[in-house]
Each structure stands twice: as structure tokens, then as C-alpha cells.
Amino acid sequence: MLKRLLFENLFAKILALLVSVLLWFYVTEQQVFQETLSVPLRLENIPESLILLGDVPEEVEVLVQGQGRFLRHRVRGLYMALDMAGASKGRYVRRLTAADVTVPVEEDVEVLEVVQPSTLSADLDRAATKTVPVLPATESSPASGYARVGAAVVNPETVTIRGAESVVAGVNSLRTEPISLRDANRMVVARAKVDLGGLERVRCDPEQVAVALPVEKIEAITLGRVAVAAMVDTTRWEVRWDPEEVETIVRGPVSALVGLRETLSAMQIDARPLTAGRYFFDLKVEDDGGMALARREPEPTLPDSTDTTAVLEPVAPPEPIRLEVTFDLPTGVRVSEVTPSQFHIVVEELGRSVPEAGELLLSPS
Length: 365
Prior knowledge:
Number of strands: 26
Number of helices: 6
Strand content: over 45%
Radius of gyration: 42 Å
Structural class: mainly beta
Number of domains: 3
Shape: elongated
Largest sheet: 10 strands, mixed
CATH topology of the largest domain: RNA Polymerase Alpha Subunit, Chain A, domain 2
Low-confidence stretches: 357-365
Distance between the termini: 126 Å
């Protein structure tokens, strides 16, 4: 029974259903509906002497009215264009209206109002250009036993930037995007984009530069005997030191070590902070290759082990003294070891001798 009711006159029933749906669509399309649409916002004719600052919305929401229920999916090509030909430096404020929206002739809709934003606010500044140097930025490290040496070569060395005067004025240099030196064992040559570092609405010409970064093998050599010299006020003081020569090991790029044994000057000790007296120092080589003489504290005198009544007298440590030590080394070369590393310095006022206090700490070899 049920099957007969469902399938009896099936064609007529399907036809009636289709007619009903088409009639519903027809009636719906004749009705007027309202819909909120997002349309693009275009700022046109901004004077070339000005630059727009800050964020400006890319779209605005507008309320439109037209026949048919599916306006959101049917309407195309609407946009809002604002003519800024008369704008000047400073804050630009304008109320947005339905009249600012352009509707294609084939779209039978009406813009009723601008929903949001109802007002456009933008900052305008004078446009400026500036030429600034480009510095290479690097990441990672060369292969073991190699290092970046010398100055990088950048071509071109400068770029021209254009942007708002208030932004461009504060830029004195730019860097490239990081160039990888990972496992490099020879010169690295690359093209790198100039990193504008988030500068707002700034353009760069050219956008890329060529960079060459020298990478060389690092080796160590022994310089043999190097003379030691002391800097002092010779009009008042006379200085004697032991040792007068040291053996030095230095590390650096191969190209910088060539001929270094023949051209190296004396190791200089800045003894100007010293006054008359006898001093004992230890030479310290810092991690960065710098050197200094640090005053050694005297060791306390141990009592006779058979004398149970002896008392160890405390010895007041001397005032700390640090003397700078320098070598005239090529860039990238640093001292890694100096032998011997203990120094004895005697400072005497001209015409007067410091009393001897036993043997010198070190004897020249």
C-alpha cells in the first residue's frame, strides 16, 4: 500500500516538486534583501612627495541592498577608491560614505552605508632618499681550523633607500640577510638581500648585493726569541727586567703569518704605573689574545717543622697591579703562549738604586 502511494504517478510528483522549487527561487529573487559585504579599499593619487605611514585597512564593510537572497555570492567588482591628490604632510582624516563605493554597471545593487570603519585616519610624511653603506651579516662557523679573516668585499658598497623622512633620517647603515659560513674552508661568495630590518614602507635600490668573505686556515708558529721592552718615564725612572727575551707562539691566518718572524717588533710592557721598587709578575694570556702582567702575591714563609713553638706570621698581600702587554701583530693574529711567563722588574729613581733582595727570580737563558 505504502509503496503504491509513493510510486504511483511518480513522474507527476517529481515534476510538481521541481515546479515548486523553481517558483520559490523566482519569488525569492524578486524580493529585496540587504547584506554586509567586504570591499577593497584603494588609496589613489598620493603625491609623489609624500609617503603613507602606519597601517591602513585593506577592506571596508558596506551594507548593500538588491534583489535576491544570495547577494554575498553573486555581487562582484565593488570597491572603494579615495582620491588623495590634495593630501599634505600630517594626519589625513576623512569620513567614508556610500558615495565612495564604486559599483559596476552590471551589478544591480545599491550601497546603503559604510559599516566599518566609518572614518579613515592615516599619517603622511615627506618622502626622502638616502645613500647608506651595506655591511655583511654572517651565521654559523667555518670548518674546524679555519676562520673568517680580513675585510669583506661588498658590491655595491652602498644602496639608496627611499621612505618617510622621519624613518630614513635614522638609518646610517644596513645589513644583509645572514650569509652562512657553515664548514667553509675557502672564500665564500654569495648574493644576499639587503635586510631592511622592519623599516616601515622603505624601498631599497638595489635590493641585493654581492658579498665576498675571506676564509683562511688558522695555523700556529713559534716566533723564537723576541725582545722585551718596557715603556717608562725615562726622565725620572730607570727600569731593569728579567727575562729580556721570550719565546712566543702565535696563531692566525696563513697569509698573516708569512714573514712575521722577520718583521715582529719587541713585546712591550707598559711599566709607567710602577714606582721605585722590586716587583714579581705572572704573564696572563687572555682568551681574546690580550696579555697583561699580574702582580704575584708572595708565598708565606713556612715555620721550621721541628719548632713546635713557631707561629706562621701572616703576610699582607701587595696592592694589585696590572701592566698591559702588547705585540704589534697583524689583524687576526693573537698570542697563544709566552715562555717564560714569570717576570722580575726593578724600578729605580735616576741616581738611586733599589736595595738588592736576593737573586733575580729568573735568569736569562
